[in-house]
């Protein structure tokens, strides 16, 4: 099997219940026909799980390691230490070493100093924002003082050279940026197809992160406001990439993944939905853990498959690295599992569960149909703190996590606590990197 081209599009804060193929779409005032069609052509994962926040998820994707290991625990303001230490080995580095052309267009959020930008971490080129989209509001905020708070910029860079500012990231450029990211992605695909070089395109779009503002061409399109208009724009951008792959005749040579980094926005007026699940990002509820993920590889992955088996974002690191012919690092714990045999329909998912941290706290453990909560915070900033007696839910029978059934199922504590013990033993043998640790 020849190594495929790899296209990975990551939406920002797209909840489980937003897309038509996940029960949303027109019901949310925003039809998503292009992504729905993509789902019908490949594998739709109903139980794809991420971390609690933008930085933790993106670090897990790029390193294959839970953020508690790498110190990538949360978003921090510009100018403060953040992101993946250079000792971490990124997916882009592994694929680049296998001869892939690599590009990042979009939101990075894994380092905003020289040495930690995408072009320093395995990407041949990048264009986008080093941190987060809410910074686009800075310069329009009442009382904003650029002498004490950095002006945010869209940036770009190439491997071997310093990254540079391109233009201010403000409310105007926020509306335009996903169009620019997509156009650059299309040009990258065209260039590398012309020279027959395998490519890894990482396209982390800015939609639907607040402020959720659509391009002017999509403003008013749905009649249901900026959020719905932005969802329609996002669907269109994904469709543009699909169309280019189809036009070039390389669909069967391209492993295409569309996913989200986090559960839905909870900030009004941009609040999203997780469908049948309870909660939003920044919690340990299923609405935070489960997000959309669709995998297409015509001729390899059967069309029209739907699976509720567990997959974790760290698995994308291991799966894509192996698909590209790379060896998984053996000098450190890698939490990701190569799920390609599962994607190809050759066996079930190799993952039974995972630990879920928010910052330094082990909030919950998910195992098979069960979720054990050590802390209880169903809504952001409304937590009870650590529980003396954990709550246990069967998330198949109780998707809203409303009925604690631990008293009837204390046997579940055994396999879950063994998972926790194994992780702690691993952390003792390979100590975690402290947040903000220098390179």
TrEMBL record:
Source taxon at top rank: Bacteria
Keywords: Calcium, Hydrolase, Metal-binding, Signal
GO terms for MF: arylsulfatase activity; metal ion binding
Pfam families, A to Z: Sulfatase, Sulfatase_C
Cofactor dependence: Ca(2+)
Sulfatase N-terminal domain segment(s): 4-325
UniProt-listed CDD domains: ARS_like (cd16142)
Top-level class of the enzyme under EC nomenclature: hydrolase
EC nos: 3.1.6.1
Family: Belongs to the sulfatase family.
Name used for this protein in its record: Arylsulfatase
Naturally occurring in which organism (per UniProt): Variovorax boronicumulans
